[in-house]
């Protein structure tokens, strides 16, 4: 395709497929959409900026004019600080290319696994990044408060995208004091149970659709196969050891107590040792603390504490366990060559609810917070919140999911990613964010993690919940 | 900031440093007259004192003040944080673990280093033997921790992938979860530190042993002293200053131990120590007050060891 036809076609397709600031509600984007004459006059003068130009991305052409309302941002740089490191950082960086081509601005990407603990240090030290991908709503609250006037609320273009393409729940998790500060970036779905479709077929097991069926299946497997256990699990994760345990509790809190009680629990409107939490933990314990049900391939119940979460589900492949509860991103942990799919070596099913009438889904994701108010930063935030970007990113990634409703499921090649997006976009889904990520850090990354480790190594449900309740920050 | 900007800043910083240095030298050179010595000393001292004040004294005072404040550092709460550290069950275990580390690591690292130095002294393979024990010193704490984490790895069923458990299973014993049960898990971590530090002890002590005057040794031999007596009455008294330096140096390093705990267990399973808990409280949990308190406690604990160390060094110099 020649450049010329591309450009001509671009304008037409752009108005259909593209969607960057499409909701027309804001005068800013209207201005941009008017094309080559729009935007700052300096943009035209410099010749390289956005107005009237189209750039080809993997998911289609990108109408650059949507950025022209931000003025000439050519040559400007935007610094991004994130926990997303190799190998997942490559599709991230590659997905910025259409934006960079379009505007002439440059994105400086800095990935650091310790970002969560370093971000506040950098903000307080006056060295905040332009943009940070924050994976926890609790941390977002802290960061916005710590940054004070430097924290930049979402511009109208981003608000429009979030209103149009994300659910209310997602917008809420990106807001501080009712004001949207951060649009969602990636997402993941936690409510999955990984299993081997082949093993299930060999034994004529059906994928359970209610919790009772799941427990019946568990008992059945324990009876049928003396050389294996129905479940395997691993809580070890370096300094974050214990978090897979919090996921178990949260899933069961959602299922046994319902989303409303779950919200109260996260906000500490009911105590942490409330009877509903006891019930959730004991329901998890019926599987995790039963030596007949765990820990496939690793040994007794206590091995869960020291088994790395990455290794947790691996025994499914050698047949020493049948099921493993873990999020969609666990797809990245299967060895190269493992076929993931409904008829492959490995796949996942929705972790059943108590009855089939409700569909609570627990998940998590990152949010794009900004600490510098500048046209190039706002343009980039607008780009990241658009369906164009979500589709662009989907095409070049595996193991990546978006909650953007403008994301086309067909663009998610990996079956588990597609299943996750489908789950997120399902109207029956009641979505809740990972509870421990939204709790105060003293609990969410402190006593809750530690409590789960103590619980799995033998401490009673009551003593664990009592000590977590005691650790909740007073004030 | 682009790479170029960073490079530019670096160049500016280097040039600025050179200019400041040149000015100081020039000033020192210009000073004449009766009290010249004192003035010259002042010119050199003042920048150092200023930098120390900014980089060391000020943060120390800030930390001390923070330790009397609440989690966000916004409210004065008196000695609450200190009370928490000395009453909270989990933090008491942290303190106890630190005591275990400081008692066992310096003692065993020095003892093993000394024994090794004595055994290989003047042997034919001394150079190679020394290099072997010294090698772990060259490995970073994090690297060493990862190596040992593999050594301790546990797998309940099937074949073991951890060296130690494989040995246990070969001997017909059950495999162990070394890093899970307190307090033994702390001792398995301590082993890593001893493994690293024994090389340092061996090197310094070996040099001290070689420095013992030959005539003393010969005199003792003529008196018919046996090997044990030689060690007790000749070697040990002669190398006593070196032993103390080694012990205190390792003790200070051990008080600050962080990397090993963080890499191997992340402080879970009751293995945390003060330095790790300080980091955990300050940066993971976000309790700046409690973090500062732990830092102050660490500081207070190190002071006597440092003073003792300095005095011993002075004594050795005076001789």
Automatic annotation (TrEMBL), chain B:
Residues 95-309 form the ABC transmembrane type-1 domain. InterPro entries: MetI-like, MetI-like_sf, UgpAE/MalFG_permease. The keyword Membrane applies. One of its GO terms (biological process) is transmembrane transport. One of its GO terms (cellular component) is plasma membrane. CDD domains: TM_PBP2. Its main location: membrane. The chain crosses the membrane at residues 12-28, 40-61, 91-119, 131-151, 187-209, 230-255, 289-310. It is found in: Cell membrane. PROSITE patterns: ABC_TM1. The keyword Transmembrane applies. It is a multi-pass membrane protein. Keywords: Cell membrane, Membrane, Transmembrane, Transmembrane helix, Transport. Belongs to the binding-protein-dependent transport system permease family. This is Carbohydrate ABC transporter membrane protein 1 (CUT1 family).
